[in-house]
Design a protein that fits this description.
With 223 residues, the protein is an alpha/beta fold. Helices cover 47% and strands 14% of the residues. The structure holds nickel (II) ion. The site of nickel (II) ion (NI) has 5 residues, from loops.
């Protein structure tokens, strides 16, 4: 009984200690997939490091890689839309945009078992006035290391580590070896700084928010 009391006291002390420091949460997001080899490499790495992420998928690639799409969901990651053809939304008519989102959403639901509720427009470009997202929350980002442009993992990692703050949404792409490498290094470095990785919806919830359809989010910075 005494032993139990000591353990209980210890737990209370530990709990108080944890409670005093604000938790640092961040979300990794990957656009333009699934891409086959690189997405598979990324999923292996995330599984090994036990880190959830959010994938904004292109419909035409979901059609090409339904099994990878299914694995993304099975591994506990979140899936959002990134259009069907990766055409910038301002270049599409309202009907074309609706078609893109409906087709992609259907394919994702068919492969993963769940219809997405988040959308990230290609290039972060919102549709022309008049087109509204009635069904999806728009998720942009707060940290963009431009991994797709440099293809240098070291530069991508440095750019992220220089600016990252709790509540940030980090933009990456599972479209090259250097991005997958960078993601692994970012995870290791931020874990050392006390960060916990969450999906976008989990990140919002951690800071008391819920992504709402029709609203645009860049991050969920506390305060
Ligand atoms: Ni893109």
């Amino acid at each position: 009984m005494r032993k139990f009391a000591i353990i209980l006291a210890l737990l209370l002390v530990l709990d108080t200690g944890v409670g005093t420091a604000p938790k640092k949460y961040v979300a990794l997001t990957f656009d333009d997939g699934p891409t086959g080899r690189y997405t598979a490499q990324l999923l292996d790495m995330l599984e090994e490091k036990n880190v959830p992420a959010t994938f904004f998928l292109c419909g035409y690639r979901v059609a090409q890689y339904p099994a990878l799409t299914a694995r993304i969901a099975e591994d506990g990651h979140e899936i959002g839309l990134h259009g069907f053809s990766h055409t910038y939304f301002p270049e599409l008519t309202g009907k074309e945009l609706d078609d893109e989102l409906t087709r992609s959403s259907f394919l994702i639901a068919e492969a993963s078992g769940a219809a997405p509720t988040l959308v990230r427009p290609p290039g972060g470009l919102l549709p022309k006035k008049g087109s509204v997202f009635s069904e999806f929350a728009v998720i942009l980002w707060s940290v963009d290391p431009e991994d797709w442009a440099t293809h240098q993992s070291g530069r991508t990692v440095r750019r992220v580590l220089r600016t990252v703050q709790p509540g940030d949404i980090i933009l990456l792409h599972d479209a090259s070896e250097s991005s997958v490498e960078a993601a692994g290094e970012i995870i290791d470095a931020l874990k050392k700084e006390g960060y916990t990785f969450l999906t976008v919806s989990q990140l919002a919830a951690a800071y008391g928010e819920t992504p709402e359809a029709g609203c645009v989010y860049h991050g969920f910075a506390p305060g």
